[in-house]
């Protein structure tokens, strides 16, 4: 065992173990990057597609991931 972290289910443990093994099974088709989680790949692919599905309710700006939207919303 690499660390003493505990997880609620086997999937969460499997994903966490990739931190220790550096396994990155989710590869981008458009560049050499690869990711530990499917969701990280999905967010990354928006760099290539230009998709910005997270829109601000207060202004016309849109973002490729929810974290960027949350950071932006602090300006309002």
Features:
two-stranded antiparallel sheet, repeat, flat, 76 residues, Double Stranded RNA Binding Domain, 3 helices, DNA-binding, metal-binding, ZN334 protein
Describe it for me?
The structure is a single chain. Strand 3 (54-55) and strand 4 form a beta hairpin. It contains three helices and four strands; from the N terminus they run H-E-E-H-E-E-H. It has a single domain, classed as Classic Zinc Finger (Double Stranded RNA Binding Domain, 2-Layer Sandwich), CATH 3.30.160.60. The longest helix is centred in the N-terminal third of the chain and has 12 residues, at 10-21. It has helices at 10-21, 38-49, 66-73, and strands spanning 26-27, 34-35, 54-55, 62-63. The protein starts with 9 loop residues before the first helix and ends with a helix. The protein has a two-stranded antiparallel sheet with strand order 1-2. A two-stranded antiparallel ribbon has the order 3-4. Helices cover 42% and strands 11% of the residues. With 76 residues, the chain is of the alpha+beta class.
